[in-house]
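Need residues for this backbone.
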């Protein structure tokens, strides 16, 4: 029986609360706490379908330790292998001190990261990372090698099951006898249910490690990755030839950054602290933006507005600091306020100096800024007209059923979701079964306009897209986003797929930061319902349907849901509840976006017609 099917206890009546005395107070061991409150240590759990899922955090924590060795000048190669759900990482650093091996991977607040002489710019300063990996793995094995000797420890779910120590056998390959640390672990299926590793997600993380550590070689499943020019290579990979001027680059003692502009709308940043990708930015990213603005203003001796400089910007910034303060154990956002002064000064000087050395690039940058200024003026005029027209229609946003909590409302806001669906029928089912506290519904009247290749002003001339943009709160910039998740909920037919593509074209054309920031998802709903008088099963594809029919018997009733509106509201609640299936929308590299949009949403070409016909035939079969 599913958790959602179990009978729920009636809430206790006022004055009838459970007994609260000394017997109710518990003290958990560190191991128990990690396994019981996993989210505090690694964030979300997930099944591996999202790059922020817990299994990737476990991998990151292990690799981070090897990266720290490289940063301190020890070992220039790290071997990573992921196969059949098992992860193996081997570095060639100093190796964990043999006598403290067990303590370093099992006792919270134990490690050398507190000692500045040993690790000056470490990400893992909390003494938790590897211990969490150990506690959350069904199998965890670590081997440290130092000066021809080794120590080995094996754990199951954080409990030591065996250890040994001795000298490395002369028969071992020379590479295996080199100093360093080897870690092997299998995520615990009791914690991470039905997980699987997505190799593309891991490859992306591996590449980022090389960009942030020029000269370090990472070998992932036999393939080597190395970067010679750091963040310059990162932007080259992301943009390709789609740049207005050659990539600018600066490297100082504690800061490195690269930047350029493209013809895309919005702005895109990759920010890092001590090798950690800070997906939510933080004080270092704010300081970079401020310094970048001041550097450009100083070079041109003009008081350009921030939004005119930032429109079309793509940049990467990485800093090294001794005592990073992150907002959580997963380290997605930096909170240090003391870095602003020196960072703003360093970025300003670095950007200004690069422009002086590259006058032709500076000229193209100025042309971009002036063009942005003209577009902003034109956009403001159109915005005013759109606002006036909207006032005449209604003070409320048409077709929006809002929720109580929004993104800025703390913990509850972090669960806020807006579903974008087609028509009143589908919206009706969702409105009746949604959580009114955290789930909002925006209903489209049909297929939206194809916005590929159109100016941003076109949004304001399209009533429906304008209303959707206002509902999301992103009229001025994505900082005003009102919901943590934007979920496209369209029917699973050709019209539904077309609407999905039209909406993705809208977001990728004007607000690609929402996609790259992991805010946009596709809702998966069942295509079939197979039931008997005793049991009902929902199936998401034909294979699941056939298996359900086989399991329930030939007399079972099979229903094909042609659209979301055909699903009864009482049934629909479970598909947008705790067991909701969401597919994150992601892009491997920004340079691929224009090519993909042009192929699917641009002018008809023989290649596209051939692709459509081929896939229609395959789907029909």
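Answer:
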């Amino acid at each position: 029986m599913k958790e959602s099917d179990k009978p729920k206890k009636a809430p206790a009546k006022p004055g009838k609360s459970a007994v609260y005395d000394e017997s109710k107070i518990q003290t958990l061991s560190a191991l128990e706490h990690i396994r019981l409150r996993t989210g505090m240590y690694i964030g979300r759990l997930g099944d591996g379908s999202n790059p922020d899922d817990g299994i990737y955090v476990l991998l990151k924590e292990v690799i981070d330790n090897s990266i720290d060795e490289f940063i301190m000048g020890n070992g220039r190669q790290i071997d990573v292998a992921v196969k059949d759900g098992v992860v193996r990482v081997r570095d060639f650093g100093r190796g964990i001190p043999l006598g403290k091996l067990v303590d370093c991977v099992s006792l919270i607040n134990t490690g050398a990261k507190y000692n500045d002489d040993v690790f000056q710019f470490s990400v893992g300063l909390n003494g938790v990372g590897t211990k969490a990996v150990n506690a959350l793995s069904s199998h965890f094995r670590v081997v440290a090698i130092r000066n021809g000797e080794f120590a080995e420890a094996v754990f199951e779910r954080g409990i030591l099951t065996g250890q040994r120590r001795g000298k490395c056998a002369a028969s071992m390959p020379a590479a295996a006898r080199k100093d360093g640390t080897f870690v092997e672990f299998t995520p615990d299926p009791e914690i991470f249910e039905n997980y699987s590793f997505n190799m593309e997600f891991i490859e992306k993380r591996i590449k980022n490690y090389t960009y942030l550590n020029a000269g370090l070689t990472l070998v992932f499943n036999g393939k080597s990755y190395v970067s010679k020019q750091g963040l310059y290579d990162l932007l080259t990979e992301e943009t390709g030839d789609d740049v207005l001027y050659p990539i600018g680059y600066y490297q100082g003692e504690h800061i490195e950054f690269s930047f350029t502009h493209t013809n895309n709308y919005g702005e895109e940043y990759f920010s890092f602290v001590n090798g950690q990708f800070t997906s939510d930015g933080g004080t270092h990213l704010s300081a970079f933006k401020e310094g970048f603005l001041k550097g450009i203003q100083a070079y041109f001796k003009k008081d350009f507005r921030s939004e005119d400089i930032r429109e079309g910007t793509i940049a990467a910034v990485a800093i090294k600091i001794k005592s990073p303060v992150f907002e959580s154990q997963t380290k997605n956002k930096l909170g240090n306020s003391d870095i602003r002064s020196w960072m703003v000064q360093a970025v300003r000087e670095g950007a200004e100096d690069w422009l002086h050395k590259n006058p032709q690039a500076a000229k193209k940058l100025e042309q971009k800024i002036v063009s942005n200024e003209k577009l902003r003026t034109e956009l403001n005029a159109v915005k005013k007209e759109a606002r006036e027209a909207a006032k005449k229609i209604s003070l409320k946003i048409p077709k929006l059923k809002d929720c109580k909590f929004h993104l800025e409302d703390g913990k509850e806001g972090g669960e806020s979701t807006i579903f974008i669906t087609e028509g009143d029928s589908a919206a009706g089912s969702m409105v009746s079964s949604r959580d009114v506290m955290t789930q909002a519904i925006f209903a489209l009247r049909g297929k939206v306009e194809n916005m590929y290749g159109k100016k941003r002003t076109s949004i304001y001339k399209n009533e429906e897209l304008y209303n959707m943009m206002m509902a999301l709160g992103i009229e001025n910039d994505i900082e005003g986003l009102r919901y943590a998740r934007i979920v496209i909920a369209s029917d699973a037919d050709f019209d539904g797929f077309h609407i999905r593509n039209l909406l993705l074209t809208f977001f990728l054309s004007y607000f690609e930061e929402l996609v790259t920031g992991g805010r946009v998802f596709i809702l998966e709903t069942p295509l079939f319902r197979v039931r008997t008088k005793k049991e009902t099963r929902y199936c998401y594809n034909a294979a699941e349907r056939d298996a359900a029919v086989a399991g329930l018997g030939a007399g079972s009733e099979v229903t094909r849901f042609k659209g979301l509106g055909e699903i009864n509201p009482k049934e629909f609640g479970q598909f947008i509840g705790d067991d909701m299936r969401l597919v994150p929308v992601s892009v491997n590299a920004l340079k691929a976006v224009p090519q993909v949009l042009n192929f699917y949403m641009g002018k008809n070409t023989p290649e596209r017609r051939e692709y459509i016909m081929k896939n229609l035939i395959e789907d029909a079969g």
